[in-house]
Amino acid sequence: MQAFRLSAIVLATAMVAGCETASPQNSGAARILTSAEMDRITAGVATATSEATALATGGAPRTAASATTQTNSGNSLIPGSSFRNYATTRATALASNGQRIQAGVSTQISVDGGSGGAWIDAAGTVAGGGTGPVQVSTQAYGISTARTDLAFGSVSASACCGSTATVQVKADSGAGGSYSQEIHTTATSDVQGQAQRKVDIAIVSSALPVLDPARLLVTGGSARISPKY
C-alpha cells in the first residue's frame, strides 16, 4: 500500500445580498399635496451586498469567514426611528497556521430616499505565511431621512507576522444630490513584521446645503439638527 501526503487546503467563503424596493401606494383621488406631505415623499430604495473569503494551505490551516446584510425601505418611517430607508452590512475573514494564508472582503451599500442617493464600495485583502494570523473586516451603514441620504463605514486589515505580509484596503463613495460632502481618513501601521491598514469613510447627499464639520468645531456649542433633515 502506498501512502500519499497532501498539503491541507481550507477555503471558507461567505456571501450575502439584500435589496428592497418600495411599492407605489394609491391613496385615492388625485389632489395637490401639502408641504408636509411633500417632505415625507421618498423613493424608498436600500441595497447591500457583502462577501468574505479566507484561504489557508499547508501546515494545520484554520479559516473563518462571515458576511451579513440587512435592508429596510419604504414610504413610512421605520418603527422607533426617524429613518425611512436603512441598510447595513458586515464582513470578516480570518486565516492562520498555513504556509500560504490570505483573506479578503468586499461590500457595497447604497440608499436613496429621494435626495440623490449615497453609496459606498469598500474592499480589503491581506496575505502572508506561517502561523499568521491575517484578518480583514468591513462594515457599512446607510440611512435616508426626509431630505438626506447618508452612508458611512470602514474597512480594516492586519497581517502578522513576517516580512512577506501584504495588506491592501480601499473605499470609494458617491452621491447624486444637489449638495454632498465626503469625509475620508486613512491609518497605516508597520511595526516588527505586523502590517495594519484602515480606511474610514462617510458620504452625505442632501436637498439642502451641508454644514461644514469645521464650523461645528469652531462654535464650541452642542450641534443642533434641523427637523427638515
Describe the structure.
By secondary structure, the chain is mainly β. It is 5% helix and 59% strand. It has one domain. The strands form 2 sheets. It has a 6-stranded antiparallel sheet with strand order 3-4-7-8-11-10, with no helix packed on it. A 5-stranded antiparallel sheet has the order 1-2-5-6-9, with no helix packed on it. β7 and β8 (148-159) form a beta hairpin. The protein is elongated, with a radius of gyration of 22 Å. Mean pLDDT is 76; it is low at 1-13, 15-28, 37-43 and 215-229.
Topology of this structure?
Elements: E1 9-21, H1 35-39, E2 45-57, E3 62-72, E4 85-96, E5 98-112, E6 118-130, E7 134-144, E8 148-159, E9 166-175, E10 179-191, E11 194-206, H2 213-219
Antiparallel strand pairs: 1-2, 2-5, 3-4, 4-7, 5-6, 6-9, 7-8, 8-11, 10-11
Average residue pLDDT: 76
Number of helices: 2
**Structural class estimated from helices and strands:** mainly beta
Q: How many domain regions?
A: 1
- The sequence of SSEs as H and E is EHEEEEEEEEEEH
> Shape from CA axes?
elongated
What does the main sheet amount to?
6 strands, antiparallel
In spatial order, strands of the major sheet run: 3-4-7-8-11-10
Helix share bin: under 10%
Q: How many beta strands in the DSSP annotation?
A: 11
Low-confidence stretches: 1-13, 15-28, 37-43, 215-229
Oligomerization status of the protein chains: single chain
The proportion of residues in beta strands is over 45%
In whole angstroms, the N-to-C terminal distance is 75 Å
What is the rounded Rg?
A: 22 Å
